[in-house]
Automatic annotation (TrEMBL):
Catalyses which reaction(s): UDP-N-acetyl-alpha-D-muramate + NADP(+) = UDP-N-acetyl-3-O-(1-carboxyvinyl)-alpha-D-glucosamine + NADPH + H(+)
Family: Belongs to the MurB family.
This protein's record includes keyword Oxidoreductase: yes
Major subcellular location class: cytoplasm
Gene name of the record: murB
Keywords: Cell cycle, Cell division, Cell shape, Cell wall biogenesis/degradation, Cytoplasm, FAD, Flavoprotein, NADP, Oxidoreductase, Peptidoglycan synthesis
GO cellular component: cytosol
Molecular-function annotations in GO: FAD binding; UDP-N-acetylmuramate dehydrogenase activity
Broad class of enzyme this protein falls into: oxidoreductase
Protein's name in the database: UDP-N-acetylenolpyruvoylglucosamine reductase
Length: 363
């Protein structure tokens, strides 16, 4: 286990912001992870768990407590009698490499989730999803360290109460501090080469299949990676359009009356309990925040001096152009949220966890 003080957290996050941690540990085994979490809890210290740092905005003042960086590795694939398999991955397994390895070994199921940054252990937290799929469709169980009961616990898929970008794990996280620390995750896989039905219209079009039809899993991975790269949604150390937390806002879910009040061309999809899911990207764009909003020469330049902006390829990502602070990212995000509310009466909610910081209050 590595350990130290005053590590700058900007080095652990994909948006490259965040001040120092009072203390930090890097846990390379499950045992080290539990020991580090227990030690922080017994000392009464606030605890921040960081995986790939791709869904966190940490304040410029840093985190006055213990930061545990997850670096546990290991995976095991067990074939079942029915021709499926369950892959058990340690929380610290890098997600996209895990997806790639299942496909190259002939197992399908995770292909539409290719190219998402971060580690396997974070995927159940916000029910990671893209291109019509999410991990709730594959997860069999999640092993956790329960900090309240101080014991290992195993949750079934149903126990986790998955929803759109949420789960029991996220709902029990307070100010970015989780009750349950994920140790490992089990995923159900199917024999390839065919992948799961392609639900997302844009992906089906690229693959030349009808929505709802299956396609070869390797083709789905290739197409998803291409689509994501075109939107700056695959991490690239040379490309500031990817120095972000991915989508900064979730797609809002509103009641039918609020949806009916929107222009007829506003994209919308049915959600649970008669509610309607809207496109945050469409609302942002139509409220007047185009790609690159915040860059020098754009209307939003004064918000953060050009240091932070919407991606030049996707209006949902708030990006660090190289020298941004957390305050800069939040200034751009806050202006966008306020502008969408003014234009459509709908408040957007951040998807990343905001640690020790928040969107600026409305003036
Ligand atoms: C370019 C880009 C594209 C993205 N595209 C997508 C996308 O298509 N779909 C999508 O859903 N997300 C997307 N994201 C967001 C992000 O990659 C995912 O949410 C990812 O699962 C976060 O993993 P992480 O390991 O980086 O988590 P972190 O950012 O390190 O942590 C996120 C949260 O999970 C908690 N956490 C992490 N590990 C554990 C653990 N083991 N136990 C308990 N809590 C834990 C943290 O405390 C924190 O609250 C994107 C991000 C980027 C930068």
């Amino acid at each position: 286990m590595s350990t130290g003080t005053s590590l700058k957290l900007s080095g652990l996050t994909t948006s490259r912001v965040g001040g120092p941690a009072r203390r930090w540990f890097e846990a390379e085994t499950e045992e080290e992870l539990i020991v580090a979490v227990r030690a922080a809890d017994e000392a009464g210290e606030p605890l921040l768990v960081i995986g790939g740092g791709s869904n966190l905005v940490i304040s410029d003042e840093g985190f006055d407590g213990a930061v545990v960086h997850i670096a546990t590795r290991g995976r095991e694939l067990r074939e079942e009698r029915d021709g499926t398999a369950v892959l058990h991955a340690q929380a610290g397994e890098p997600w996209d490499a895990l997806v790639a390895s299942t496909l190259s070994e002939g197992w399908a199921g995770l292909e539409a989730l290719s190219g998402i940054p971060g580690l396997a252990g974070a995927t159940p937290v916000q029910n990671v999803g893209a291109y019509g799929a999410d991990v709730s469709q594959s997860i069999t169980e999640v092993r956790v360290w329960d900090r309240a009961e101080r014991q290992v616990q195993v949750f079934s898929n149903a126990d986790l109460e998955f929803g759109y970008r949420t789960s029991l794990l996220k709902r029990t996280t307070t100010d970015g501090i989780p009750r349950y620390v994920v140790l490992s995750v089990g995923f159900r896989l199917h024999r390839g080469p065919l992948g799961a039905a392609v639900r997302y219209a844009e992906l089906a079009r690229v693959l030349g299949v009808e929505p709802g039809q299956p396609a070869p899993a390797e083709d789905i991975r290739r197409a998803v990676l291409e689509l994501r790269a075109g939107k700056g949604m695959v991490l690239d150390a040379r490309d500031p359009d990817t120095w972000s937390t991915g989508s900064f806002f979730t797609n809002p879910i509103v009641d039918a009356a609020a949806a009916a009040a929107l222009p007829a061309e506003a994209p919308r999809w049915p959600a649970a309990d008669g509610q309607v899911k809207l496109s945050a990207a469409w609302l942002i764009d139509r409220a007047g925040f185009g790609k690159g909003f915040g860059l020098p020469g754009t209307e939003g330049e004064q918000l953060a001096g050009g240091r932070a902006s919407l991606s030049t390829r996707h209006t949902l990502a708030v990006t660090n152009r190289g020298t941004a602070t957390a305050r800069d990212l939040l200034a751009v995000a806050g202006a966008v949220a306020d502008g969408v509310e003014d234009a459509f009466g709908i408040r957007l909610h951040p998807e990343p966890l905001l640690i020790g910081c928040s969107l600026p209050a409305r003036s």
